[in-house]
Write a structure and sequence with these properties.
Helices cover 62% and strands 8% of the residues. The chain is mainly α and 252 residues long. Strand 5 and strand 6 (240-242) form a beta hairpin. 24% of the residues are buried.
């Protein structure tokens, strides 16, 4: 018996069903997007009310300021958005503009410290060290400016519109500010991470712990020395390669 082919009516019904499914799927997707948009608007309105109520605490209390920034990030709000506009952003106006002023004034001081220490550290300085230097400056002039490492990181990010000159990078479990455009390769990052344990490394330490051959160890150390990211101690029994930030804390 010859098998009958699919008729035109069946093809038409199949096409109509596919179009109905597609239309229904589009409607569900649109409804879902509308619901999410409404929820986000509610969250943003609640955050705006929170900011109005606690504006003074946000400006003066570093822990409160950090929590507020985290809440903003969670729902995709940037308090520093459009801050390059002289009129300022909605959030800048809402908070009296002082939050923006705080971060940009802090960013100027971060840039100054990075440039002053670049010959010592090759343009890579720990966020914690920058914070310590800023607080020391304030103590020296009799001021009191409570800042956190989170404040320093956000101040660096406030410089993003100016280009890629200043970036926060993570090496090991520590945050660093890189003020030179050169990227660290994987080997350099691994060696700098190893230095955080004792403050220095040697050829033998890297060969034993990382399993590298002599040529690989020498190459990465030479690169770090040439970029002034490490200092060399020739007086030790085996040549030691130190991170400048650690040496600054050694007893004189």
């Amino acid at each position: 018996m010859q098998r009958r082919g699919v008729g035109l009516g069946a093809l038409t019904r199949t096409t109509q069903s596919a179009q109905q499914y597609q239309s229904h799927g589009s409607l569900i997707h649109k409804t879902h997007i509308d619901e999410l948009t409404t929820q986000l608007s509610v969250f943003q309105a609640a955050l705006a009310q929170f900011a109005r109520t606690h504006a003074k605490d946000i400006r003066s209390n570093p822990e409160f300021r950090a929590e507020f920034a985290r809440m903003c990030t969670a729902i995709g709000v940037d308090p520093l958005a459009s801050s390059s506009d002289r009129k300022g952003s909605f959030w800048a106006e809402l908070l009296g503009g002082s939050v923006n002023d705080f971060y940009f004034e802090l960013a100027v001081r971060v840039v100054e410290i990075c440039r002053k220490t670049r010959d010592e550290n090759g343009g890579l300085i720990a966020v914690s060290e920058v914070k310590q230097k800023i607080m020391q400056q304030d103590e020296n002039v009799g001021g009191a400016n409570d800042i956190t490492e989170d404040d320093v990181i956000r101040a660096v990010k406030a410089l993003d519109p100016l280009g890629p000159g200043f970036t926060v990078v993570e090496i090991g479990k520590k945050q660093w500010i890189r003020s030179v455009p050169k990227e660290l390769n994987t080997d350099q990052s691994m060696v700098l991470e190893a230095m955080q344990i004792l403050g220095y490394v040697t050829h033998s330490m890297l060969r034993v712990n990382l399993g590298w051959d002599r040529a690989r160890v020498q190459t990465v150390l030479d690169d770090l020395v040439s970029d002034s990211l490490v200092w060399v101690d020739m007086q030790a029994e085996e040549v030691e390669y130190w991170t400048p930030s650690f040496m600054g804390h050694l007893p004189g």
